[in-house]
Amino acid sequence: MDNYIVSARKYRPSTFRSVVGQKSLTTTLKNAIQSNKLAHAYLFCGPRGVGKTSCARIFAKTINCLNPTADGEACNECESCKAFNEQRSYNIHELDAASNNSVDDIRALIDQVRIPPPIGKYKVFIIDEVHMLSSAAFNAFLKTLEEPPHHALFILATTEKHKVLPTILSRCQIYDFSRISIADMVEHLEYVSSCEGVTAEPEALNVIAQKADGGMRDALSIFDQVVSFTNGNITYQAVIDNLNVLDYEYYFRLTDAMLSGNVRSAILILNDILGKGFDGQNIITGLASHFRDLLVCKDEATLILFEVGASIRERYKEMAKRCSDGLLFKAIELANTCDLNYRASRNKRLLLELTLIQLCQLSSAGQPADDKKKGLIEPIASNGPGQAPAQPGQAVATQTYTVQSAPPLQRPVQSPQEMTGATAIPQAPPASTPKRVARPPQFGTSIKEIGVEHPKAQATAQAATVVQEIQSPFSQEALVHYWDAYASAIDKKVYLKNTMINCKPALQDNYCFEVCVHNPGQQDELTNNCIDILSYLRVQLKNTRIQMRVRIDETNQKHLAYTSTEKYEHLLNINPVLAKLKDEFNLTLD
Ligand SMILES: [Zn+2]
What we know:
By secondary structure, the chain is of the alpha/beta class.
């Protein structure tokens, strides 16, 4: 183990040709050297581990090489090249600006700039992480950077270009290094494993490349880690175990469940994955990427975007044939919505399960786009073949609650909040009736139309399937009373509390009430919490058919806080303690 060198160092490129994944950039640099059109300052920027410092070193070596090759590479044989390769060249100075960022450090460097190189033509100064220089150091550096002696050449490297002063940027030729593609990385890893006498499955290397997220250095250090873990026999299974990566297999199984509308299977698979200790958010983002991969591998034109290893490609293509474009669009959207809501969700597992349920409904619903327009979702029980038959004695809610904002602010509502309506009461009406309810051809999108359709729809379904349902009548006053009671019991969700205090429900036909809110934020707040609110109201008012509809009041929603008083009112609305603060300190608004 004495002379063990990590792969990232051992396989550090020594010529432009051996730099991985930056071909166009290295070609440009080579051409500049060959045509002898060198700038005196370069800025290399890009994410970490993509070859910025390596390229800077190769560049320094090449412009000093005494016998450059015909294609513009360093010979690696002349005295200068040898000195570079053995790290004893006086023609290269590296400064790590992350730890040497003071004016004194820059002054010491400027002193060095004046002395011409003992051998070769150029003295190259590489300043790594240049954005870390203090502003005084930047300013001390400007003059030298603008008019350096002809033998001096600066290469600045940074991961954060936006933090470099514009005055510095304008004095440099800028090269943007890109993330290294998965294919390039896999190719290089294959090369390294063949040099190291390591056997590796291509799929395993693909996982390593994905995990490295565009950085070759990271990929090589993960590679080293896996090599020592597997004793030089890198298999896909060993890699996913070691790196805690979720197996593709799970995503394929989830997609299968989605296509067959098998909710139970999907939820069991989720349970299996969670049981292995994977984070829910990773699962859903992975699933979204999986759908995205399925989508891009459907078409030759987009196949270049497909970054999954060749061996599993056929399997993706096979599965992609079974999914329509519309289904995949919708699936990606659902997974993405779940990802966005994940952090805010209190019951994260439920959110994941709801998303899976919605995904499973996509294929059996047939026309997801229509459902979205109407903001309605079919009862789960009428969908897949693997569904439970209707249970006698179960409460029936034929119409899930709908969320509509007044046109033109209609928002897509195929999101978890909708599902909450469907799952709040377990329901199992026969397949035929609700289908008619959910999708009559003349069914429009406006509130008015839905309002008109409601009684008919419910009556139809009711006649066919009424089993046991509690339907005690209640008054507007009682509704507001329990609404307020719920609001006053909230202690943590201040925004929800204030929304409920400010926006009162208005009872309409068929035990459906409408809440008129002022902005989309309030609408989201109510819809995200509707499962809790409705459960409470249904119990208190002894009516299982209560539905909520949230509408944005058009006259109010454009009213934004412009004046100080309005802003104060708005903040007060969020945090009532402000009033006390204002009084105690005698603050005024102007
Ligand atoms: Zn040379």
